[in-house]
Amino acid sequence: MAETENLVAETAERIFADLAFAQTINHDPQGGWKAPLWQALEQAGLPLSWVPEACGGSGASLAEGFAVLSAAGRAALAVPLAETMLAGWLLAQANIASPAGAMTVAPCGPKDRIKDRIEDRIEDRIEDRIEDRGGRLSGRARGVPFARDSRHIAALVHGSQGLSIALVSVSQCRIEPGVNLGGDGHDTVTFDDVVPLALQPVPRGFDPNALLLMGAVARSLQIAGALEALLDASVRYANERVAFEKKIAKFQAVQHNLARLAGESAAAQAASTSAADAIAHSPSFDDAVFLEAASAKIRCAEAAEKGAAIAHQVHGAIGFTIEHILHRFSLRALAWRDDFGSESHWAVELGRRVAARGADELWPLVASR
């Protein structure tokens, strides 16, 4: 299986190297690089990696898909590859065939909860929601990545009959454009009596937190990949930049900063890959998976903040210019911290989960990972 994972990741990396090179993208602000890149990704079957062949996908394993996301992070990819993979995975849970083209998922944040109609009448002014009104969806989802660049949205819906999964055409929704810190689409999607293209109940035993956990691990892997790229760029620059007649990599302060950056990168890599491995080899989203996924998002978000600051400090003023590629990685790593739950959200949820298990269960849970 490891060899297959490597082959899939290598395919993705070759496509990214040929069609998503950071400097090339920097010199193409009109986005002419996007169409050829997406075409190559679709031809390789990467956007629908997690969709079974019976539902129109590639039928790749979860581990293979996670390897692709790591590579996407190292390329600071600014197309909805991760989002389409997550949407395809969600639709596959309800045996809904995935359509061609880019997709995204909703909701992408824990506050966009979906409520039944009785709760909505009580709390309508307090919380945004998406709900199933007899086959029609209503509500609003904030911070949906690449919504206006996608053709379809896979939505997790709460209705009077319980959880459902819906496939929705973006053309039926109202999109309020927004951007995240990295300059990518981060839109508000309003569902106003939208008729879904498909609507199916979730399978028995489906965890309501599964989409957020999958998204959190996906973003953790992307952050870890971006930090790898930041480390490589910083080491390379430090070995090229000369100050006071010697390379700045010879200065102890710079060496110390690079060591700290390497530590943050390694920590993010370890946490994210461990969480991905836990999901790939677990039959359900149990407490062990929750611990791994939540911990990964917390640690990778912290690493993004510290690592981006160090990388920019090593590069000095040049790293802040729009012409330099550094910001492509640092800003996206910082932006990904808040998608699918921020570190503070997962810290609170993890604390609640541990408290509910009791003090005697904490050490066996931690020691088993």
Write a compact overview of the structure shown.
The chain has 369 residues and is of the alpha+beta class. 51% of the residues lie in helices and 14% in strands.
What does this protein structure show overall?
By secondary structure, this protein is of the alpha+beta class. The protein has 3 domains: 1-77, no CATH class; 95-206, Butyryl-CoA Dehydrogenase, subunit A, domain 2, CATH 2.40.110.10; 210-367, Butyryl-CoA Dehydrogenase, subunit A, domain 3. It has helices at 2-19, 22-26, 34-43, 62-74, 81-93, 117-123, 210-238, 252-280, 287-315, 326-335, 343-357, 359-367, and strands at 103-106, 130-132, 137-145, 152-159, 162-169, 174-176, 186-194, 198-201, 242-243, 246-247. Strands 1, 2, 3, 4, 5, 6, 7 and 8 form an 8-stranded mixed β-sheet that branches. Helix 7 (210-238) packs antiparallel against helix 8 (252-280) and helix 9 (287-315) packs antiparallel against helix 10. The model is unreliable at 114-127 (pLDDT under 50).
Order of helices and strands: HHHHHEHEEEEEEEHEEHHHHH
Quick one: CATH superfamily of the largest domain?
Answer: Butyryl-CoA Dehydrogenase, subunit A, domain 3
Q: How many structural domains can be distinguished in the coordinates? A: 3
Count of helix runs? 12
Topology:
Layout: H1 2-19, H2 22-26, H3 34-43, H4 62-74, H5 81-93, E1 103-106, H6 117-123, E2 130-132, E3 137-145, E4 152-159, E5 162-169, E6 174-176, E7 186-194, E8 198-201, H7 210-238, E9 242-243, E10 246-247, H8 252-280, H9 287-315, H10 326-335, H11 343-357, H12 359-367
Helix pairs in contact: 1-3, 1-4, 4-7, 5-7, 7-8, 7-9, 7-10, 8-9, 9-10, 9-11
